[in-house]
Design brief:
homodimer; about 350 residues; alpha/beta; 2 domains; eight-stranded mixed β-sheet; 9 helices; about 30% helix; glycine oxidase (chains A, B)
Chain lengths: ~350, ~350
Amino acid sequence: MNENLTVVGGGVIGLSAAWRAARRGHHVTVFDPEPARGGASWLAGGMLAPVTEAWPGEEHVLSLGEESLRRWPAFARELAEEGADPGLAGHGTIVVAFDSADAGHLDILADYLRSLGRDVEQLTGREARRLAPGVGAVRGGLHVPGDLAVDNRKLLTALFDACVRRGVEFRRERVESLDGLGPVVLAAGAWTGRLHPLLESAVRPLKGEILRLRPRRGCLPPPPYTVRAMVEGRPIYLVPRADGELVLGATQYEAGFDQAVTARGVRELLEGAERILPGITEYELVEIAAGLRAASHDALPYVGELGEGVFAATGHHRNGLLMAPVTADAVVAWLAGEPPPDEIGAATPARLLEKERV
Amino acid sequence: MNENLTVVGGGVIGLSAAWRAARRGHHVTVFDPEPARGGASWLAGGMLAPVTEAWPGEEHVLSLGEESLRRWPAFARELAEEGADPGLAGHGTIVVAFDSADAGHLDILADYLRSLGRDVEQLTGREARRLAPGVGAVRGGLHVPGDLAVDNRKLLTALFDACVRRGVEFRRERVESLDGLGPVVLAAGAWTGRLHPLLESAVRPLKGEILRLRPRRGCLPPPPYTVRAMVEGRPIYLVPRADGELVLGATQYEAGFDQAVTARGVRELLEGAERILPGITEYELVEIAAGLRAASHDALPYVGELGEGVFAATGHHRNGLLMAPVTADAVVAWLAGEPPPDEIGAATPARLLEKERV
């Protein structure tokens, strides 16, 4: 034990892996020009919601997400024991529909989840509005009580602090080559494709804009649930924070490595949010931001050995925060030569080789 | 000469007055917690456009604005001679109309301006779009060639630097009382009402939100003119900057001293701007901000002696940048015991006493 480990990337995946490895006695070095704050996880909404993200045909994503969700409470508790509480909230999710097309979409989702034995409750418009006061004229909804949410910025700060306390070394620089780094975890999000030939065309940036709002005096407070909806075909979510802030996300574009906040993105998010929560018009718009998710060729991440001493932990798409605990556990198992969590098997980067062969 | 002068407020009015007075040999002290950057002028669009702001019944505002506009080129030249060019742009204004109601509004404005002998050119929709490529499906327009625009941030920086070079002393604090300050100019914008009983109910904050955008690669560049329009009853303007930036303003609310950027304000500005310039959707949204204009009880500012040794230079509403030169000249004339510019007469605070008497 007490081996060295290099982690490329200081977002939620890299910091989680670094912390867990350092806790097991490894000497860890994290390379990131701006750890914690520089990437997609700093901007995220923080929903830990595998069920409302589920869709027929993506069972592996659901299973992996649910497995990670099961690991979240212990992960958060252990992090809190090291000094900083990441702010896990168990307020559940409501998905609302505004027209018959959206309501039909919810029916499909509800049937699918029931067929898998998942706990969902269908709501009339009136029931949805009773659970989430302030929500607009909805036609119906789904209530998913088991979802969690985490304040992503508290979490990243807590992870960073825990890493520092555990002796993790931070190098604020970019990694150009893996030569001589020893065992290394590639967790550089959308930029990971630049680090390994097998990932080069497999990981791509998926731009997202996200806003942060805050009720002004006299405004209706945010709903006590995470509220999701499709508005004119665009998925929108509103995640309340314990401190009163409301996170509104997120657009989704293929725009290369461009990280500019666009006029269109902000306008569409605000319009969608007004449909869901009419009172949001009077909220203060505190922050506008854009970041790059790491998308994979399918909806699953790449978590597993890429080659001798090189471990991929990337391509988490919209699920980086959700899947951080199970991914970090897979890294630790790899370092110890133990078998990884069962559900991570589907995320093996070996499927890229199969894909190439086909 | 070489008397002391205190200026309360380091926005465009206060800095202009301070610079001009220091140039004449006065020893000037400016009080402002955040000179240049802290107030409404830092956020402004920088239109110097008295004609397109004109409206029947507000002839005094038009005359005063035009008089100040005439003083602008020399003001800018003298400032440039002291070291920093404020970036005066002579690109004129186009006002566009999207429906028959807006077009009717433009006809009234054109008739009115012609009756006053002002130079305006009525445009068909096609002509308007030829002058300002990228403008949406407009019904008609007005071209006002004599308007100017100034980069407000360059201007404020230039004024601040010129003040420093002329020995103006800056005290980064709020003024609570005028006792013992000697001759003093009250130029604290929306906050000026707190400094003198006569202004207390006469100057009020008028909130405005304003955005700054920038074309991304592949975007149509901003139009070469300032473009103004009414969109669903809300006045919108787009002011191009020499460096490619486009300023989009401005909302107008009575909201006390609240300076929060609201979701509604941003959404309405973006929607309006998309109507005027459809390609703006792909622009980067660089900045969202809100500030407080100083509104008066009529549309004129208060410029003149309030009492022994106390001079008002406030209440400029949407016209602070435009009216800075004539206001500064009025301050200098007051200090020298000379008559002020003729057109400033209508702006005398003495009209508040008449109002009280009625």
